[in-house]
Amino acid sequence: MNNPYEVLGIREGASEDEIKKAYRELVKKYHPDQYQDNPLSQLAEEKLREINEAYDYLMKNSAPRQETSYNGNTGGSNWNSQGDSDFFNQVKSQINTGNVKLAEDMLDSSGNRNAQWYYLKGLIFMRRGWYDEAYNHIQRAVNMDPSNYEYRSALNRMNTSNNAYRTNSFNRGYNKQSPDLCTICQCLWCSDCCCEMSGGDLISCC
Amino acid sequence: MFGYIVPEKPEMKIKEYELFRAYYCGVCRSIGRRHGQLSRMSLNYDSAFLAVLLSAVGNEQVKALRKRCVAHPVEKRHIVCDSGIVDYASDINILLAYYNLDDKKRDDGNFVPKAAMLLLRRAFKKLRKQYAAKCSVMEERLKDLLLLEKAECASMDQAAEPFAKLMEEVMAYGPLCTDEKHEKTLRWIGYNLGKWIYLLDAYDDLEKDMRSGSYNPLICQYKYDQRDIGKFRQDIRDRVEFNLTYSLNEISRAFELLDPKINRGILENIIYMGMRRKTENILGIGSCNKVE
After folding, report:
1. Is B238 on the interface with A (CB under 8 A)?
2. Residues 170-229 in B contacting A (C-alpha not used; CB under 8 Å)
3. Distances, alpha carbon B82 to alpha carbons A188, B23, B38, B67, in Å
4. Chain A residues inside the 8 Å CB shell of B193
5. pTM
6. Chain A within 8 Å of B286 (Cβ-Cβ)?
7. What are the pLDDT digits (tens) for B50-69?
8. Across the strands, what pairs with B63?
9. Is A74's pLDDT higher than 90?
10. Which candidate, A70, A107, A65, A63, places its Cα nearest to that of A85?
11. So what's the ipTM on this one?
12. A38, A133, A164 ranked by CB distance to B155: nearest
């Protein structure tokens, strides 16, 4: 096992609170939801497993455990929705195991172009990196069957995933407002006036 | 198509900026040392990014020495030396520059690209032998791209595929691909990087392509119908932005999986800020906050 402190990105001998905080942030970052329609989803699961092991190890060796580690398997549960025909289930399981090419061939050979077909085709496009086609196909599935929760949540995921990137970039300082020169001058001038009133003088010329 | 991958300088730490420049100078020096001084003119920032990323993934111990160089004879600068990865980035720089010139020559049959190609020819021939497998894949992709252009492909995803696959090949640096996980992740970064570059370039060239009547995937997909160019740009902007940001998000997710121990600050700066800034500048979003 790798050094658990390194895995969690904290200094050695960090306190329990620090461990928990780092752990929570990492789980959020590598959560299966973040990688759901992504060809790297299996790698993300591995990473999460490693993080869980590190966390378990550290918690076991400090105090009795209060928090159970996150179980990564729940992310894939919505694959097993009921009422689908066998064929579409097979395609789904092929997509799920990363066999995108085979899933696409199966789908293309089928003449039945219903909402489910467009939805699955969209998922395949997403894994191939064809985001525009993916969006259009899933949108079409939603239009054909607006009551289906699975289609709508996939469309929603696409719409919100860009916000994740934007938030990350904002947190690193992108376009954060910092005071411009004008504001700084104004503040200086104001504090100078205040000082003069109480007898002192910050800037002698005004 | 070059020079879109840039850092957001005002948000960089000084030590990160110094190190990034050391990589940039390292690539430049490596080109000069191995392929002749004139070839250095083909240098661009993208190659520096490639070197920084790959050496982060390989966890390479860098050796940055203070040296003088032809371009900056007065002041000594830090330069990354003796790095296999920097050498690879400089080779890729030459190969891509050559392919790009070849493409330009075909477009307008101009004298300038022909002359520049002559300068790079020797280096190119040598590298073509050295990276035979990689080059044949890349040339195959470029052929695909030409075919799609000729057929006036009306889907941005399909049109971007060859270039995305080409960048995938660039990122798959042999020695790092012994680890299957690294290969998969690097290839995914490459694919999305290529896609981002291709689409951004297409949007950037809208006016030019309309005037000259050249192929542009966005004009074909969104069926430009002689309306005002500015209006057309505005109309398709949201969709293009969605696709560009989606690619950037995929790059960032893959990058987080690589979880590099070195060069992290530089890479985060470029992926989360520099590339976003470039995207927004070209799309014309938030230009009042432009930082020079």
Report:
1. no
2. 181, 184-185, 188, 191-192, 195
3. 52, 11, 21, 13
4. none
5. 0.85
6. yes
7. 999 999 999 988 888 888 87
8. B81
9. no
10. A107
11. 0.88
12. A133
